[in-house]
Amino acid sequence: MFIKFILFAFLTLSPLYALSLSNKMVEDHVWGSGETLLAFLQENQMPLKLYYEMDSEDEKLLADIRVNTIYQVLKADDGSIEQVLLPLNDELELHIIKGNDRKYHASVIPIIYETHQKSLFVTFEDIPSRDILNKTENFELSLGIERLFRKVINFKKVRLGDRLVVYYTEKKRLGRFFGEQKIEAAMIEQRGKKYYQFLALDGKYYDKKGKTTNTSSFIVPCRYKRISSKFTLKRWHPILHRYRAHHGIDYATPTGTPIKAAYNGRVIFAGRKGGYGNCVIIRHPAGYKTLYGHLSRFHTHVGQRVKTGQLIAYSGNTGRSTGPHLHFGLSLNNRWINPALKIVFTKGLSGEKRRAFNASTKLYIRKMDNLLKANAHCEKMDSSLQDLEENSTLGTTKEGV
Ligand SMILES: [Zn+2]
C-alpha cells in the first residue's frame, strides 16, 4: 500500500515528474565508476541511515548499478535535494523524496516507461549500425539488431541495397531511450535471401522454422539439488510488500561442490565482493561476463585463462546468503541478463508455445512482405523523381518534392 501511495503521489503530484516534462530544475547526473550511495548521501548532507536502513537485497541492487547510468536530482532554491531518482536496473529505481515532515524517505519503485510499438525499415547505404542509428537515433536498438543476427549473417558482408525490417517496442524513461528495446521480429535480406529472427514466448529467438540460432554455449556451472531462486529484474514480493530483483540464478548445493567456468574466458576478479561474498568473475568473448558468488574456496587467480568446464572454485555460504548455494550471474555489456536464456538446452519449442510461435511468425512475415513491397514502390518513385530532377532545368530541390 505504502509503495502504491508513493507511486501515485509521484506520478500525480511529484514536482520531479511535472518539471521533467518542462525540462526545468531537474539535474541529470551520471553514475560514475566506483560511486556509492553512501558517498552520494555524504556529499549532499543527507542522512546516512537512508543507506544503513536498507535491507540486504536492496543493498545488492545498489552494488549493481551500471556505470554511466543517468539519474535525476531535483533541488530546492537553497540547493538542498528534494528528490532523487536513480535507476538500479532496467525495471527498478531508487526514489528518495523529502516528505512534508522535512525528512527523507527512500523506496524502490518500478521505472515508469513510455512504450511505443515501432517498425523500422532500412535499405543499407553505409555501415549497418550507422544506417540504423541514422533512422532511429537509438544506439541500444542497433546493438540489439547486430547481436540478434551475429550468428546468422556476416555484418561486414552487408551490401548496398540489402534490406532490414524490424518490429520492436521502444522504451523511454523521462523522455530518453532507456534499457533494452524489445525486438519482436526482425528480417535481414542479404543478396535477395531473407533471414528471420522471432521472439517466442520462452524469451528466446528462433528462425522461421523454429530453430534457435542464438543460444550461447554457457554450461550450468555446478551440480545442484534445485534452483532456489530464479532471475528477475522486477518482482512484487507479496509478504515483504516490496519490489525485489535477483540478478542471477541460485543453485542450492552443499558447501564444497566444485564450481566450473561456464564458458572459455579470462578470470578478472577473485576475491570478496560485498553481498556476493567470495566471488569469481570471468570475462568471455562478445561482451559476456559470468559471476560466481558465495564461494568457500578459490581454485583460480586473476588473469588466468580458463576453459569451459574448468574447475575455478568450491561453493559455499559466504556474503549475504541464507544457506549454501551458488549465485550464478551473467552480464552482457555490463547489463545483467537471465542466464537461463543462454545456457545450452536442446529442447526447442513445443505444444502451446510452438503453436503461438507459428501463428505470430506467419503474421509478421506477411507484414514484412507488405512493408518491403510498399517501400520498393516508394524507392522506384524516388529514383524516377531524381531522374526528373537531374533532367529538369527548373531545379526542384529534393526536399521540395
Ligand atoms: Zn543469488
Give structural notes.
The chain has 401 residues and is α+β, with helices and mostly antiparallel strands. Helix content is 25%, strand content 34%. The chain has eight helices and 23 strands. The strands form four sheets. Strands 12, 15, 16, 17, 18, 19, 20, 21, 22 and 23 form a ten-stranded antiparallel beta sheet that branches. Strands 6, 7, 8, 9, 10 and 11 form a six-stranded antiparallel beta sheet that branches. It has a five-stranded antiparallel beta sheet with strand order 1-2-3-4-5. β22 and β23 form a beta hairpin. The longest helix has 41 residues, at 351-391. It is globular, with a radius of gyration of 25 Å. The structure holds zinc ion.
CATH architecture of the largest domain: Roll
Global Rg: 25 Å
Q: Which of globular, elongated, flat, extended, rod-shaped describes the shape?
A: globular
Poorly predicted runs of 5 or more residues: 1-13, 18-24, 385-401
- Which range does the strand content fall in? 25-35%
Bound small molecules, deduplicated: zinc ion
State the helix count.
8
Q: Give the biggest beta sheet.
A: 10 strands, antiparallel
Number of strands: 23
Mean pLDDT: 85
- Return the structural class: alpha+beta
**Quick one: CATH class of the largest domain?**
Alpha Beta
User: What name does CATH use for the topology of the largest domain?
Assistant: Nuclear Transport Factor 2, Chain: A
Share of helix among residues? Answer: 10-25%
Number of domains: 3
Query: Termini, distance in Å?
Result: 57 Å
Short description:
Helices cover 25% and strands 34% of the residues. The chain is an alpha+beta fold and 401 residues long.
